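Practice problem: predict the structure.
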Amino acid sequence: MKPTVRNFVIVGLTSEGKRFRPSDWAERLCGIMSQFGSDHKMRYSPYVQPGPDENGAKTVRVDARLYDIEPLAYHFLLNFAKDNDLQLRFPDEETPPSDDEDGPENARKEKGSP
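Answer:
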């Protein structure tokens, strides 16, 4: 059975609200999923994109379609957030998932979430 796979955003803040370092972590993380185009310039994957959130914190947006192309990369990014105690957001959902199960469903709730 295929696990539940969702779009998610890794926020460069720990569960305690501290900024994650180094300051270019999002670009580095997206860089491992990038490729070089015919113009010899690096291009981020359309499935893994860096950017700021509404408060200016660094983020990495992960498209759920990455799972269909490379499930190990999807799980690597999810586990990176968990291993570094980073906040995860699920923009397609009103409430974060529960912490009761393994896999993508077992993502950390944002601090202050119900």
